[in-house]
UniProtKB/TrEMBL annotation:
InterPro entries: EXOC3/Sec6 (IPR010326), EXOC3/Sec6_C (IPR042532). Coiled coil: none annotated. The keyword Transport applies. GO terms for molecular function: SNARE binding. It holds the Pfam family Sec6. It comes from Suhomyces tanzawaensis NRRL Y-17324. The keyword Membrane does not apply. Belongs to the SEC6 family. One of its GO terms (biological process) is exocytosis. Keywords: Exocytosis, Transport. This is Exocyst complex subunit. GO terms for cellular component: exocyst.
């Protein structure tokens, strides 16, 4: 019993109660066994029947093989009886050959006598066919096959006669040549017909005449097959063994006729002629050829999509035509390059070369066939020469851009020095941040007319023109090189401007400086970072016109225009030019192009900072007359009604001067520059206010501060409060709600100074004010600020100040360790310097 059966039984009998089922299971197994036996018997009988049938077929096959063998023997016997055993077999064979020769002679006589007439008729047919295809591109070559057949017969006849007469006398050979010579005209006419067909291929297909191609292909394929047969027989040595006296000369071929080579040669000549026609048309401007090659691309597309499928794949018509046009375009380009064209022409060549490569790649992809175009044929000038051309172009364009930049610098220098006309006005769209009534940040979009230098867009226009040409070429190396070179030139212009405005600033200060209001001038000049002006000119006695010869009018306006120009250009470079041209280059060049644009940021920022600094110094210079009275007796009494002083208060003069300058600046400068200028002006003005006050007390006619003064007009705190109120109330309208916070914080330097000057127990209280108040507002405040006011106090001497300074420095050090610096630090007291 099998394992399967045992397993089945085990599954049926698992518990003791299953034993009562044994009898029924036995009957079930008996039925299953009977069923299996029946199926086995049937299958076995079928196999026996199949074996018997196959044995019967095998027996029949053996009988038929015996019959075939007997028949083959009979054939052999018949052959022996009819050939080898026939008497005079050699004689019969010779007679047969003689009969064949005589028949061939008769045929030759007839064909030779009629050969000229035959050719004349053939020539007329060829001429008529040629004229028909010339007259109509839709003509379907109705007689082409007939003409080819007749010409083939004639050429076979010619080959036979020329080969058959190689062993006869020269006279007879001369006669034979006279007979076959007329066929040369027929061959020439047929070649002309083929040329006409070949040159009409594309246009005929465009007109729907594809039958022309099919018939041409049929003829050339036939000729190619016959040439292949001839070559094979020649290689096997069979051609020399042919019996010329017995063969049918109508099928005789004595040499290869190379119709396929003729087809490719004439097709190439036709394509060359087409391309040369384009060159000749633009002979006056060869570079115009590259701008007018749409026909070539259309032609290649048509050949690839329409013409190529009509030819056998082995002909590779599309690839052949592509290669021919490539070779012609390459040759033409080399001829142009050898003439040493200008940089613009080189870029046009490179631009088309890139376009051509992309076009060929798309064309090959669209054809969905394996490319037979070599990789170096994707470039009309070749990779090696292309690299040289790229380098030459970069050298040429670099020199050109440097020359242009130098000329621009000369023009800009002259225009800034002469200032013969006001700056240009440009409508500038700005986004300004402010605070609403709930002190929430809001953005305001405004259009402002700002001053800019004449032709301020010229450098960026030059960049765009050169970069667009470089980008159109498709070569990232060229585009990045152009931008990098432009960036270097841009920075050279910035350096020139920095030199210009420094020279112009010194001229302005030579004519309009108020150094005479400084106390202990050498020290204060050093504090104000003023360069001493050595001049023998009597400035005080000069008229305005005479002063204008030293420093021409419009200096601040041109400074502002210069700052606006570089701010606008910087924004355009970063927001528009950088992302636009970054997308034009390969990812490998992204870092270089980003760096090229970013290299202009720091120089531009430094130039704008220098401009703002000079504007602020000019404004503060005009404040010197008013500031010269700070902390003096007149300052204490300024604005006090009991003094019967009718003059304008010092603080009012200051805010009027600042207001006049800043309102004017706001009318023609960008808000960003205006805001930064105002902040730096506040910092510089407040520092100047304090320095003038210290100098007047310690070196001038001012008196030391009495913390215990009781009279109101002699109270230092009251005077400071008065000035602070005037400053804030008058300057507040010049700023947005958001920027007024900086004004308020800056002016707190005066309030803190008042506290420092009037507090009791200064050695104890001043460190507390320094730590809890001053450093929280002026994170980088200089200790000299406190040192100066302490020296101005009547109740403090130098020994106390010297004892206090180290304590303050230690507090500042700990404050910086424990408190992060603010995002926008208040700069009025940063690096504050006062020499006692």
């Amino acid at each position: 019993m099998t394992d399967i059966a045992l397993s089945k039984i085990a599954n049926l009998i698992k518990v003791e109660d299953d034993l009562v089922k044994v009898a029924s299971l036995r009957q079930q197994f008996i039925k299953e066994k009977a069923s299996i036996d029946l199926k086995l018997s049937t299958t076995t009988q079928l196999q026996i029947d199949s074996i018997m049938t196959n044995l019967s077929r095998l027996n029949n096959a053996a009988l038929k093989l015996n019959t075939i063998k007997q028949n083959i023997g009979t054939i052999n016997q018949v052959h022996d009886d009819s050939i080898t055993n026939i008497k005079d077999y050699a004689t019969i064979k010779k007679m047969t050959q003689v009969n064949q020769f005589m028949a061939q002679v008769m045929d030759l006589y007839r064909d030779i006598s009629q050969f000229k007439t035959f050719l004349d008729r053939l020539n007329r047919m060829i001429a008529e066919e040629t004229k028909a295809i010339q007259d109509s591109l839709v003509y379907r070559l109705n007689n082409f096959f007939t003409i080819h057949y007749l010409l083939t017969q004639a050429r076979n006849f010619q080959d036979y006669l020329e080969l058959d007469t190689t062993s006869i006398s020269d006279d007879l050979q001369s006669i034979i040549q006279r007979i076959v010579n007329p066929i040369k005209k027929s061959i020439r006419l047929f070649d002309e017909l083929l040329v006409e067909i070949i040159t009409s291929l594309t246009e005929s297909v465009k007109d729907g005449n594809i039958e022309l191609i099919f018939k041409l292909v049929k003829v050339i394929e036939f000729e190619t097959t016959e040439d292949t047969k001839f070559t094979l027989m020649e290689s096997l040595g069979l051609n020399s063994q042919r019996d010329l006296k017995s063969i049918n000369y109508s099928n005789f071929r004595g040499a290869r006729r190379n119709y396929k080579k003729f087809f490719y040669d004439k097709l190439e000549e036709s394509l060359d002629e087409t391309f040369n026609g384009c060159i000749d048309h633009f002979a006056h401007d060869k570079m115009a050829v590259y701008d007018n090659l749409e026909w070539l691309e259309d032609e290649l597309l048509f050949v690839n999509e329409k013409l190529n499928p009509l030819f056998p794949n082995t002909w590779e018509i599309s690839s052949f035509i592509q290669n021919v046009y490539y070779n012609r375009l390459h040759k033409f380009t080399m001829e142009v390059i050898k003439t040493d064209p200008p940089a613009e022409d080189l870029m046009r060549i490179l631009s088309y070369d890139s376009h051509y490569g992309k076009f060929m790649t798309q064309l090959q992809t669209a054809s969905n066939r394996k490319s037979v175009i070599k990789k170096d044929q994707k470039s009309i000038i070749g990779e090696d020469l292309k690299n040289l051309v790229l380098e030459d172009y970069l050298k040429v364009i670099t020199i050109k851009m440097e020359e242009w930049n130098q000329n621009l610098i000369k023009q800009e220098t002259k225009a800034f020095h002469d200032r013969e006309s006001p700056p240009d006005v440009y409508n500038y769209h700005q986004v300004i941040e402010d605070l609403d009534a709930n002190d929430e940040i809001i953005s305001l979009e405004v259009d402002t007319d700002v001053f800019v230098l004449p032709d301020f867009k010229t450098p960026l226009t030059m960049l765009k023109e050169q970069s667009d040409v470089a980008a159109d070429s498709g070569y990232s190396k060229i585009l990045v090189g152009v931008i990098e070179n432009w960036s270097r030139g841009y920075n050279v212009r910035i350096e020139n401007y920095r030199t210009i405005i420094e020279e112009e600033y010194l001229r302005y200060m030579a004519a309009y400086n108020n150094d005479k209001y400084l106390v202990t001038q050498s020290k204060l000049r050093r504090m104000f970072k003023r360069t001493p002006q050595e001049t023998n000119i009597d400035i005080d006695n000069m008229t305005p016109d005479e002063l204008a010869t030293i420093s021409k009018p419009g200096f601040i306006e041109y400074l502002t225009a210069l700052g606006n120009t570089f701010e606008l250009n910087t924004d355009r470079l970063q927001d528009k030019f950088l992302p636009f041209y970054k997308d034009k280059v390969h990812a490998n060049y992204h870092d270089r192009i980003i760096k090229a644009f970013e290299d202009t940021l720091n120089p531009s920022t430094e130039l704008i900072s220098q401009i703002i600094r000079h504007i602020v110094e000019i404004i503060v210079n005009d404040l010197f007359p008013a500031l010269s009275a700070v902390f003096t007796k007149s300052w204490y009494e300024d604005g006090n009604a009991t003094t019967n002083n009718d003059s304008i208060a010092m603080a009012t003069k200051i805010v009027e001067t600042i207001g006049e300058y800043m309102e004017e600046l706001r009318s023609y400068t960008s808000y960003d520059i205006y805001q930064v200028t105002f902040n730096i002006l506040l910092d510089t003005f407040i520092a100047s206010y304090i320095k003038f006050g210290y100098a007047n007390v310690l070196k001038g006619d001012g008196k030391k501060i009495d913390p215990n003064a009781t009279k109101k007009y002699k109270s230092f705190a009251e005077a400071i409060s008065r000035d602070t109120t005037i400053f804030y109330g008058s300057l507040e309208p010049l700023l947005t709600r958001k920027d007024r916070e900086y004004l308020f914080s800056s002016l707190s330097a005066l309030e803190f100074m008042s506290d420092l000057a009037t507090c009791e127990q200064p050695m104890k209280v001043i460190p507390q004010i320094w730590e809890n108040d001053i450093l929280n507002v002026f994170y980088y405040c200089s200790v000299d600020y406190v040192k100066g006011i302490c020296l101005c106090r009547k109740d403090m001497d130098k020994s106390q100040v010297n004892e206090l300074i180290p304590i303050l420095e230690e507090i500042k050090k700990n404050h910086h360790l424990n408190v992060e610096p603010p995002t926008l630090p208040i700069g009025a007291l940063t690096d504050f310097l006062y020499e006692s």
